[in-house]
């Protein structure tokens, strides 16, 4: 971009062509062209000052200097138009140049103020009629010059200011038809394509093609400039690009919305942990292990291990907040996830793998292209698939636009034992992926784990160290040098807190208490915090009494909790608060807790006036529940996850000293269920929508109660569920507006990809939500009345109570429905799905067993030809597959294909699911015919396994499950047209979570059972060809070991070696060359 510079001598000169980073602040001119405009050539040759257009340049110079700008831009002379490349770039950049200008001066050559003696803007009424008729409002290019700049001033031909875009916005709106928000610099994406197109209707351009080109910035798209192509063709290309961009933007929006709906709040999980105490954690910055991680220009992993309670999570938060400010000028993204034992959401690897790519991909829309291959095929399936999420993360990290990525993972030792592989999988991302795809260029991936040094962690680390390609460091917090630093931090904390215990302490006494606390705590910050809280509660704050508390406090955390509970005087109200904190499905906000607590402590009053006006709940929590509860960012938490174990443990309480009664988990759920149901039934108004942002704050418990009340009821024994039957039935009646209010919030939170059901019966609702006592009560009434039986048997919208219970996994509810004998066990609803199909697809093994024992038809097929076995295998539910195969004659479905010719073996091989494949192979004798069967694409199971995990393959045709993401309807959140198939309200199944693909083992098993290792597709591709293209060196090596012939040719004459050589896969080419040399 060239600018005009006002020199100290009053001259005007052109700058060099400036890079974006070198462009100073500038003003910009908007005008209509006349016959004598000053050109780029005029300025470079020192001519043009006698042209009429030079007066506009002088005007712009004068006004820029008045407003304090040394530089300005005028389109007639700052672009070398005969240079076609420069002209292309200028047209593509024009909107951005106007948008980045500090101010835009609109010079209206046909609007005059010469007949007025005053310069008062409001007195110049005579210019307004000519202003409205100005030619400037009819030109195509001036549209973006009006819309793009933040600040616009309008001037008459005499240089008199007429007003600003803000002061004249109503007149401009009336003249142009442009909506006021657009004139107020609202995002242009807020306006539809047709709205933006309409802005150009009354405008024209000298060159017809420019009418299309002038809209490039308005729609944020780019097309090459081709003068001579004509207006029609230019618009055709423009509209095609707008559609592509719109689809991409909508796809990005949909994917991000879907991922966010099922991504826990990583920020709030981080913030559950306190900020580091001032001066602590800084020792890490100087450690060489950490410095090498920050400074070295290669990817690597760092383990920071330490014993329980030493502050690893606080250190992890410190690291995240240290890394976020980018001090070295390089592009950097910081990802993080905090695992937590005892919280189902925070101890699940698939949930974590939803969070990490969501954090990364939302940095820029361009990176979403890496999620589209998986999410575009089946959004709902992808969000629940560890494999798809990992692949999206892996692919995005290779993108040159990604920049450096730091990933902090806290507490990975706390996740379920079956999911330990995530540590190794994340560590593998630190390997330069040049062998298996495009290199990271200058990007790096730095991984930081904070862990306890458990046996499982050490085994996982050994697995990483055995992989010579992964650079890793281990900072051992249990070793003496680091232990000393942690103790130093602990001492800083204690030195600050001990003086606050008593103002009467002498220096010697303070020093003694500090030393005793630090020595006894070793490195356990949690122990110190709890003991200090116990000391504050001591009736005697004299030295000996406090020393006694320190010495008597057990070093083991369960013993310390027991000691605290025995000495605490927790009232019944305090127990109520603890019930809610311990039982809550997610940490409650103070306002949620206040409302729920008020209802729970006023059980005799259905309607409580001033329910939102309870006194300070935070103070009540601190008084009634200390020291076991903390408040962070308006949310209430237990002080540590181990506290929940203690509060619920009968074994920890001293039977000889029983002032503390352990909490009962059923009481926790009963308190929460009561408060939520009572709130929805009596405190949420009916007859109006409660979804607007202005309304929601008035009902603080609405979202929590709507989302979780069925869960709290479900957790209760059936005998306790009965107390909620009456109110629950009223909440389940969708004919009532009150029911629709809470259910819309539930559906938005739990099933946002589908239209909300509006016609389900009360029995269908209760079955779907798993409310056993309500279902039994309803069935009793239906059987007595008889008149409703046929209606329930037919169901609504292709669904019945029995398949809703089956797909949701509510086995006790299903048993009640089966005992009623009301329902046809094999009723086929939408797309031919029976209850058994739905249960198998969702992996509900116990439900499958119950249905099988009731003689459900295991041979029944959907409209796409799928049996229950096909669905269970496709979604990776190994135990469900095994259960189905125990049903007599079920083995005969093994060789059956469906849809695009897939068998259950195809599905297991495609997913790299060795566990399911083992089960299938046990039933297949002889099995070579099924193993070598081809699908409609001509692929055998071995072809699919050879793809590996790097490229999604075409999955079985599942229109009710695999709906393209861009058509997903997010009800009441997104306004996309519904895909026709979305009229089905089947809840889409998910892949089995956290099942790691093992394609090497699958390949060997298939070959051992007769798979043809050199089988060809119709195009002549062998499994080895696919492994070269998609699967990587590891799978190439395994296929060669199993006898694959690298010389086999495709129909186009390419061997696997040729293909590897063409793709530049050096390592694979060398491996195949070695194979050739050994012949």
UniProtKB/TrEMBL annotation:
<feature type="repeat" description="ANK">
    <location>
        <begin position="831"/>
        <end position="863"/>
    </location>
</feature>
<dbReference type="Pfam" id="PF13857">
    <property type="entry name" value="Ank_5"/>
</dbReference>
<dbReference type="InterPro" id="IPR027417">
    <property type="entry name" value="P-loop_NTPase"/>
</dbReference>
<feature type="domain" description="Heterokaryon incompatibility">
    <location>
        <begin position="26"/>
        <end position="113"/>
    </location>
</feature>
<feature type="domain" description="Nephrocystin 3-like N-terminal">
    <location>
        <begin position="279"/>
        <end position="428"/>
    </location>
</feature>
<feature type="repeat" description="ANK">
    <location>
        <begin position="864"/>
        <end position="885"/>
    </location>
</feature>
<dbReference type="InterPro" id="IPR010730">
    <property type="entry name" value="HET"/>
</dbReference>
<dbReference type="Pfam" id="PF12796">
    <property type="entry name" value="Ank_2"/>
</dbReference>
<protein>
    <submittedName>
        <fullName>Het-domain-containing protein</fullName>
    </submittedName>
</protein>
<dbReference type="Pfam" id="PF06985">
    <property type="entry name" value="HET"/>
</dbReference>
<dbReference type="InterPro" id="IPR002110">
    <property type="entry name" value="Ankyrin_rpt"/>
</dbReference>
<dbReference type="InterPro" id="IPR036770">
    <property type="entry name" value="Ankyrin_rpt-contain_sf"/>
</dbReference>
<keyword id="KW-0677">Repeat</keyword>
<feature type="repeat" description="ANK">
    <location>
        <begin position="1019"/>
        <end position="1051"/>
    </location>
</feature>
<dbReference type="InterPro" id="IPR056884">
    <property type="entry name" value="NPHP3-like_N"/>
</dbReference>
<dbReference type="Pfam" id="PF24883">
    <property type="entry name" value="NPHP3_N"/>
</dbReference>
<keyword id="KW-0040">ANK repeat</keyword>
